[in-house]
Amino acid sequence: MIRSFKSPMEYVQGRDALSQLGDRVAPIAETALVLGDSDVLEIVGDQAEASLEGSDVDATLEEFGGESSETEIDRITAVAREVDADVIVGAGGGKALDTAKAVRENVGGAMVSMPTIASTDSPTSSLSVIYSDDGEFERYRFYESHPDLVLVDTSIIAGAPVRFFASGIGDAMATWFEADAVHRTDGENFFDEDPTYAAHSLSSLCYDLLRDHGVSSIRAVENGIVTESVEAVTEANTLLSGLGFENGGLAAAHSIHNGLTQLEETHHATHGEKVNFGTLTQLVLEGRSNAFIADVIDFSVDVGLPVTLAGLGVEDPSHDDLDRVAQATVADEETIHNAFDVSSDEVRDAMIAADELGSERLS
């Protein structure tokens, strides 16, 4: 039995951490390409450029198109080669960061994850989720190297819309339930090896921080302020969830997310919102008690996460719609097989049951 644990080279988090970007990049690079969408560049572009230039790192800002698709990756790769960038700085949400990781893989050099929202566990990972140009999940793309630096400025995180912060809680909450399912069924982590005890423990800590600080942190972000609860949940959403899912393994919740992307109505829902419904469905598949699932639903509602298909934009789905989602969920390459031996019919029925339980809570 071989167990493995892999991680980024450096993780930095705190109020005004962006000011340290140049000092931390200078030892590893001379020319930076900073990638972010128009809104993100408006928020961090000038400060990132000033910090890099102040440390003698040439900086070019490039606007991200919005999808971590092969088309966008190829376009940004050409830009990186044109400016001879030896570090790619991805700023923004998971799709921008995943695109930056793919570009680094294409051109070489270093990579910096600089999330401006604590909405996913993408920043620390050595993989990209690749979507079509229309936003449908296509595949995972794996890399040998993790980001060289993950830089999280919690003053920026707290200033972002609270929906993104809540979304990160949904994504991070799944980390524990999936890692624990993999642990109990002797499944594998993302590196096709056995998870370490450390990965299982970090995933548990991730969940504990969310339950202890989740509601308080949401209230703080609603007011645009940084508190110790915001620091705790940002760390859970970003660092602990990232280390947990890669090293502890994924199971059903993320496969159900991937299946849900087959329905165009869900494309407005965030990654973490869809994952949260996947978590509830996984708990039904596991046969968890009504009281246990009700507790998770209550917490989800308290932090503003959807607990029904309607909450994801799918009003009155047809039998064919749910079958399509379920069949995509159990595709051969999906992570659900890491811990579950289930059919598409069982997944469909579990989604219906989870939706009913969520609807009862909201009625």
TrEMBL record:
Q: Which Gene3D superfamilies match?
A: 3.40.50.1970, Dehydroquinate synthase-like - alpha domain (1.20.1090.10)
Molecular function, one GO term: oxidoreductase activity, acting on CH-OH group of donors
Residues holding glycerol: 121, 171, 254, 271
InterPro entries under this entry? ADH_Fe/GldA, ADH_Fe_CS, Glycerol_DH
* Cofactor or coenzyme needed: Zn(2+)
Task: State what protein this is by name.
Answer: Glycerol 2-dehydrogenase (NAD+)
Q: Which organism is it from?
A: Natrinema salifodinae
Family membership:
Belongs to the iron-containing alcohol dehydrogenase family.
Cofactor binding note from Swiss-Prot or TrEMBL: Binds 1 zinc ion per subunit.
Which Pfam family name is an example for this entry? Fe-ADH
User: Alcohol dehydrogenase iron-type/glycerol dehydrogenase GldA domain spans which residues?
Assistant: 8-154
- What keywords are annotated for this sequence in UniProt? Metal-binding, NAD, Oxidoreductase, Zinc
Which top-rank group of organisms is this from?
A: Archaea
Binding sites annotated in the UniProt record for NAD(+): 37, 94-98, 116-119, 125, 127, 131
